[in-house]
Queue: 4 jobs
Job 1
Amino acid sequence: MSRAKYPVELPPSLGHAARKLAKEDGVSLSQWVSIAVAQKIGSIETAEAFFKRKAQGANQVDFLEILRNAPDRPPDPGDELDTA
């Protein structure tokens, strides 16, 4: 398998944590980062496939009707948008 190098700059706290976890897993930092990137890609691609599947057959008119019927009330505590 061919490999490519991607220089990555991490904040010191992430670098220290990644090195510590790689050591605990008994792998090199490079291998640990490769696995972490692969896991992230897998989770995003899985989520993308899930939402594409859920969107099949969706109807914008129905969606807008649901929004029109939603109650007009303030958000629940903790669900507020940060307006700063």
Note: The mean pLDDT is 91.
Job 2
Amino acid sequence: MASRSARERLLLHLVVGACRDRVHVSYPRLDVAESRARVPSFYALDVARGVTGAIPDHRAFADVAARAGRSSLAWPAPPDAARAIDEQEHDLAIVRALLDAPAEAAVRGRAQYLLRLNAALRRSVVERWARGEAAWSQYDGLMRVTDATAAALAANRLTARPYSASALQRFAACPYQFLLGAIHRLHAADSLDAPQRMDALTRGSLVHRVQAVTLRALGQAGLTPLTPESIDAAQRILAAAVETVADEFRERLAPPIDRVWIDEVSAVARDLRGWLTRLADAGVPWRPDYVELGFGLPRHDDRDPRSVSAPVVVAGKYPLRGAIDVVDVHAQTGRLRVTDHKTGKDRTGDGLGIGGGRVLQPLLYAAVAEQVLGAPVDETRLFFCTVDGGYRERPVPLTPAAVRTAIEALEVIDRAIETGTLLPAPEDGACARCDFRPVCGPGAQHYRRHKAAGPLRDLQELRSRA
């Protein structure tokens, strides 16, 4: 380490000694990415010592650099372009002067050189301007069928390939999110930063896997339907399932911070103890006879052995794939009930049907279960099985009108693909929960408010359905 420091100091002396007229020295005073000021470089202090004969106080040195550069986090460039140390500072200084000019006519066109020098900047500026226009265009997203897109869109119609119900629900949140996630099959890049919390996807997968292992073990032990008298034995089975599944996930994921992983697994165990207690206290004799009942997916040991590998076609034309969390059988009447477990917050309300197109799973899963099991389903519901969800049960009435509404939602989505109308039209708050915000940028919701409503009539009608 000492030899490396001495070598770098020698290189600094050689560089300064090679200059004929004057030396310009700079250091990165601002860390724009971290939104903070940097401390002066040791080499900058060395240069000051060479000029003055003494090492200056680093705080005083930083103050002098701030007054000389006059750049800020809000605009990291000096007021005078002649004092810029690189191309970026020079261009920012030019633009700042143009923005501050009192007369618009005097500066019109003065920044055109930037678009000629940088093709990426030109593309970004043109696209940002086009997105601000009232008319939809190709700069917003997919808005029409062309010769280049016709075949791809036809191959992704709801009648042409199977979708999962969770993928179809993305359309109501934002059609462009549905395009990127369900059709292009993009997903967020893995973060290289050590997480401070378990991500929602991993947590949901862990919860569902523990539930499946627990429910199967309870059935094998003859403890279903669950009752208050059998809850202690059931809790022991749950604890063993948490330990086993957590070890499996830990081996596969290799979490970077043990403390975070241990705390998050403990929180999952706490949530599921509450879930199991509520099952026992319900007082209704339901047996979870079918757990993770798959359809349209490859066979897997984690799924119910009575799963089917072929997609299930609903309404005679829409193939679906996925897995139903639980199909309960009433111990006395033999009636079927479909349960879809949710691990997040309950953003639904009373009188739930399709929730504006955001809640398609209960009705679609009921139609699938009837075909796979060859028996009618009498009930279907969402069960928010964590503390965050308040352990709320949201039943969905299985009326002919409700089923028809779900099929109409599929028709709307299929029509949007057929016509190539998959635009960035997020519902309120959707961008904050979307993995594709880096693709759209921060202004998608703002642009949407200024756009023509015509291409979105089907979407607006879908969102109005309870």
Note: The beta strands are 30-31, 36-37, 163-164, 286-295, 312-314, 318-330, 336-342, 377-384, 393-395.
Job 3
Amino acid sequence: MVHALSEIRRVLVNEGVMIDLRPIQDRWPVEIVSAQQIRETGKLHDFPGILADDEAANRAMAQAAEMGWFSHQRREFFSYNYIWDTPSEMEEWIATEWSDFVNLAEEPKRITRSAWASADADARLQVKVKMLITRWKIIKEL
């Protein structure tokens, strides 16, 4: 990843800005959401290799900053909500789109289906994904 950061630094103008925007694995919660309430029914299971990827990305950014390539300006975490109408839609999304980094175990799956079936008519499912956004200023010697 340090090589990619070197290339980013090379092509951006002096004092340019790089935005690091990525999801952070953090056992994202599964929730039933309605006008009346939000009820957490379980958490997604993070695969160990993906946690190592987050750590590697953080180390690469720290190394690039230590080398004087980038100056850290601001860092924030925020939630990005994925929303589905039914448990089967959510389960299908997890199985097809996220199968290489998270899964939903059988017990939380069962609890979620049951809670959704007995929830208000407007109830939907959401997974609250933890996102990181960091602003870095490019530093180039003139």
Note: The CA atoms of residues 41 and 114 lie 10 Å apart.
Job 4
Amino acid sequence: MLIALVLSILFALVVGIAAARSKKAEAVFIPVLDVLQSIPILGFFPIVILAIISIFPSQIGVNIAVILLIFTSMSWNIAFGVYEAVKSIPHEYLELVSMAKSSAWDRIKSLYVPASLSRIAYNTQTSWAVGLFYLVASEILTLGNSTYKVDHGIGVALINFALARDWVSYTYTIIALIIAVIIWRFVF
């Protein structure tokens, strides 16, 4: 989840800033993001899993597939937040930065990223919750006659506890998941 979140935030910063500052990038990125966020993850879930597992046929492939699916559930929301934040920077601030002849990197680190932080924090809460759903849903994958699962994970633990009829451990896992979501909410 953390790997997918970090990748989502980095992706959001690159795409969101580019779309907000360049008309050409905006004309490409915003419609593409809109279409990608409209496609249900479960719709392309099997194709992504098959493609990644065919490229990386080991346990690493399963883990990469899960990270990619969680990334896709998180990134669009955060990218739109960054885009909106950078787009709403007052024109006067942009003029000041251009008068100071700041480099592109200086503008990114001193203006665009700070302006985006509140949107990133806010949108990350929703993205994290959506990511948790897909985390549990994607940890055990059945494609045709093959079943793939991550070594350790919330979904795997829940299935194993349910199959073993260990309802106490199952309940504790659900409670721990709820507590983790509450803690995450306060972190952001």
Note: Helices lie at 2-21, 23-38, 41-55, 59-87, 91-99, 104-138, 154-163, 167-187.
